[in-house]
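Morning. Coffee machine broken again, so started the prediction first thing and wrote up yesterday's gels while waiting. Chain of 217 residues, entered below exactly as on the submission form.
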Amino acid sequence: MQSKGSISAAVASATYSFDQNQEQALALVALSHTVVEHQLYCAMLAEISSVGTRVASFTIRGLMNLTGLGGYSTVRRGLAGLGNKLSIERQKVAGNNGNHQPQTVYLVFTPVEILERRRAVGLPAYPKGVESEHGAHTLARAIRRVVEVGNLSRREAQVALCCAEGLTNAAIGTRLQVSEQTVKFHLRNIFVKFGVKRRAELVSRMFRDGSGTDFGL
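Came back before lunch.
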């Protein structure tokens, strides 16, 4: 059974050319997915990449085996969420081998394609906390670090990225449309998950590369 980290690693080394733009886009896409959605997306992307195709048939049971997710309804909700976020597209093709019922297959888009598709229909390409493409490039290392932590909720990820931008608690609350007390609540959880005790320590950790070098703003 593949872990979330091993699935992501498989994606990066598969048929798709994962240059810096794709890696950056994958981090942004991860922030827009729920944990379940992103596990499914990475598994599906790795699977089609390994066979060099864009479209493949996935069963609920097969996806449960690939991701370790339990429950048919969990996988179905995750697939529906990925479809709504334009990360995948469900298609019907003519049956074969004597089966006249149409077969369900999924077209899985690359991270860059997902962002382009969202822009094309007027959906936000970037999650809250990353207000623009300029901001995304500036916060590239922090975004990757947030994704690497792996157990942040989407709201915690948004608050962490706002901290990386240097926003105060009040400014974060205004941007995310939550109270300052809610921001403080999320920050306490973020500190625990990053293993830090102070805001400055959090920001430093988010901009540090694997060698320990700090690339803060």
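Residues 1-18, 210-217 have pLDDT under 50 and may be disordered. Going to sketch it on the whiteboard this afternoon.
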